[in-house]
């Protein structure tokens, strides 16, 4: 563990927990996968999102995130790429999905692989996560305590852990609830909600 004081950790955990329960692209993606494909898909999507955030944290530690955040060209390219990706996810949601609550057979299943990779890309292509990581994590670092890198790694690891815990919990809840409503009408409704949500988030990212 890095040299982070207990009082700082308490405030930090409270702040990131509040942030994690605020709806965003990552949460919507996890919920959409759980509602359409079952608990396992929701959990795997949450893991993909968490891996994406771990990469953001690593970029902060290495200083790469600052380079991207201060480069208008790179940042704009990522912003437009993320917006296009979210719109694409919305359009893909229009495709007919399996019955909700259908828990997939195993980790090699194609849907599970897609849930992971799309969760990863949803997080990586969100430029707001880059800005957030660059601006948020350093606020809880005390340079006088020494070993700034260790502090960033500790704070980043806690961030990923809390995100993973919240997203897995939501994914499991959504998957179990959808398993009790296994109708074709419900499946179509979920697909429409996902379409509107992802396209809306993509347009907001493009315009914001």
From TrEMBL:
GO terms for cellular component: plasma membrane. Keywords: Cell membrane, Membrane, Transmembrane, Transmembrane helix. The chain crosses the membrane at residues 12-31, 43-68, 74-94, 115-136, 148-170, 190-207. It holds the Pfam family LysE. The lineage of its organism: Bacteria, Bacillati, Actinomycetota, Actinomycetes, Micromonosporales. Signal peptide: none annotated. InterPro entries: LeuE-type. The keyword Secreted does not apply. It is a multi-pass membrane protein. GO terms for molecular function: amino acid transmembrane transporter activity. It is found in: Cell membrane. This is RhtB (Resistance to homoserine/threonine) family protein.
């Amino acid at each position: 563990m890095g040299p982070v004081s207990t009082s700082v950790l308490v405030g930090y955990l409270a702040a990131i927990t509040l942030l994690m329960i605020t709806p965003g692209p990552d949460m919507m993606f996890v919920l959409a996968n759980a509602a359409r494909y079952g608990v396992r898909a929701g959990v795997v999507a949450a893991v993909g999102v968490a891996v994406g955030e771990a990469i953001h944290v690593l970029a902060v530690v290495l200083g790469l995130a600052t380079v991207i955040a201060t480069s208008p060209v790179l940042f704009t390219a990522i912003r437009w790429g993320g917006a296009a990706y979210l719109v694409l996810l919305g359009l893909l949601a229009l495709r007919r999905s399996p019955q909700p609550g259908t828990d997939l057979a195993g980790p090699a299943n194609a849907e599970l692989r897609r849930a992971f990779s799309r969760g990863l890309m949803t997080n990586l292509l969100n430029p707001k996560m880059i800005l957030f990581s660059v601006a948020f994590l350093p606020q809880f670092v005390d340079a006088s305590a020494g070993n700034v890198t260790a502090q960033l790694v500790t704070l980043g690891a806690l961030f990923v852990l809390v995100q993973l815990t919240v997203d897995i919990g939501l994914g499991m809840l959504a998957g179990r609830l959808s398993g009790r409503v296994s109708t074709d009408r419900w499946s179509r409704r979920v697909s429409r909600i996902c379409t509107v949500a992802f396209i809306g988030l993509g347009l907001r990212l493009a315009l914001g």
